[in-house]
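Folded chain entry —
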Amino acid sequence: MNLEEFRIYCLSKPNTEETIPFGPDALVFKTNGKIFAITNLAEERFRVNLKCDPDYAIELRDEYEEIIPGWHMNKKHWNTIYLDGDLKLKLIKELIDHSYELINSSIKRTVKKK
């Protein structure tokens, strides 16, 4: 998956916006105002940070060398995924979906508490 494919896929999610709140090199995707994906446009290798269930995050890191603890993020809840490696497109999309759903489920829980 290249950057444009990544952008299109993220933006296909309902209530998603693309922003650059941390400067021109950090592209951020939010749903309902909360971040679910970040990529640094200035890096040599194309990588993204995605939110992940903590137990699943560890499983993924153990299984795939392209998946590491979240760079500059809470390493318990975020993974960095290198998209220029051998990961299958289906898995990449599943990980984006997982991140998006985690954020949306947290928003729904917050709204229910009010």
User: Anything to note?
Assistant: The helical segments are 3-11, 54-63, 89-113. The longest strand covers residues 34-40.
